[in-house]
Amino acid sequence: MFSLCLVTDKKQLRPGASLFGVVEQAEAGGVDAVILREKDPGTSAELLALAKKIKKSCGNAVFLINGRCDIAVAAGADGVHLSENSISPGAAKKILGKSKLIGKSCHSLASAIKAYRAGVDYIFLGPVYFTKSKARYGKPLGCEIIRKVVSRVSIPVIAIGGIKPANIKEALKAGAVGVALISGIFGAKNPKKAAETYLKRAGG
Predict the structure, then answer these.
(1) Which of 52, 72, 117, 175 is most buried when burial is the number of CB atoms within 10 A of its CB?
(2) Per-domain residue ranges for the chain?
(3) Taking 60 as the threshold, does the pLDDT of residue 56 lie above it?
(4) What is the CATH number of domain 4-203?
(5) How far apart, in Å, are the Cα atoms of 72 and each of 35, 81, 84, 101?
């Protein structure tokens, strides 16, 4: 399972940066999974075109589509990432096939256990720390929730929400196999160096 996942958000791009350039640089720096997650992609045709371009930028990284099984199939993605309001993991498996990855975002122990029992391949758990993009989910969950979920499921748990170089090791020590980032890379002047820094802090 991936250890450093980049979730896209073109609204957080620095002036002059491109979505494709950031993905390419991040992959070169060690990102091993990319989730295409754009809030205003336009039409389905436009989202598919974007997905195909992003897939090329991913290099060797695993490429997933947020929520849209149809786009994942058409773009030849490695799987789909579901939210708590998406279709069921079982339905997604029927569309994508058993060989594709199905992940899900969870915000509590109960939802994580439910996703696990539904057959997902991995769980995103958060927000672990405070982050504006996840503020609507309430107070940060902290690392204790990671320990609780890991003790109840036998699939990879990936921490998301407010992950910084200074706290990544704490999240991993709690049992997460990896972390997912948005602003940590999209907000960086040098996405490649940012990815390298996260990996260094994770293993240091």
Answers:
(1) 72
(2) 4-203
(3) yes
(4) 3.20.20.70
(5) 11, 10, 18, 11
